[in-house]
Each structure stands twice: as structure tokens, then as C-alpha cells.
Amino acid sequence: MADAELKKAFTELKNKSVETATRIKAVDNQIEQCKNRGKHAELTYMEVKQTSGDTKLYESVGRMFVLEDQDTILEQLKDRAANSRESIQKLENQKSYLSKNLKESENALRELVESKKTTIAK
Predict the structure, then answer these.
(1) Residue of 41, 38, 116, 122 lying closest to 75 (CA atoms)
(2) CA distance 19 to 44
(3) pLDDT digits (tens, 9 = 90+) for 56-72
(4) How many other β-carbons are positioned within 10 Å of the β-carbon of residue 64?
(5) Measured between alpha carbons, how far is 66 from 60 in angstroms, rounded to an integer?
(6) What is the mean pLDDT of residues 24-37?
(7) Which among 37, 72, 113, 122 is most buried, taking Cβ atoms within 10 Å?
């Protein structure tokens, strides 16, 4: 009876570890996407800033382009870059939480295996 409970607990901890590792990978992918978006916004900002004030600048809206002044576009690009940095920070916090959770699961799994070895040795 105790062996069945031990096996069930082992399976649950193993599943939790696998799920947490998968979530960490997903968060890593999201962080990379945010970094790419932020980098794109920053590079575009630098290029737009170099244009003269009389250059026509268009913003993509769905499948069409709308004429916008340089200040508006620069402000939007600053906002995108700032939003990306905030998202990255939130995702990094989430990743650290998940990493702690994964370590706890692995430690619990290790303790469970050790207790089983101890029980078998007796």
C-alpha cells in the first residue's frame, strides 16, 4: 500500500517537474520575442530620428498606411521599446519563480527517492 502511494507521489512530482521545465522554455521564447520587438523598435527609432522633418513617414495600420508626423512615430516607437523592457522584466520574474519551483520539485523528488532507498534497505 505504501509502495503504491510512493509511486503515485513520484509520478506527480515527475509530471510537475516536466510541466515546470516546459513552462520555463515557453517563458524563454517569450523573452526572446520581446527582446526582438524592443530591438526592432529601437533600431527603427534611430533611423526615423535621422530623417529630416519634412520627410513623409507612414505608419502601418492593418493593410494600409497612414501618414503621420515624425514626433508621433518617434513617441510610439519609444512606447514600444519601453513596453518591451517592462514585459521582459515581468517575464524574467516569472522565470525565476518557475526556476525556484522546479528546484523545489527536483529536491522533493530526490528526497522521495532517498526515502524509498532507505525503506528498501531496512
Answers:
(1) 41
(2) 38
(3) 999 999 999 999 999 99
(4) 8
(5) 6
(6) 96
(7) 37
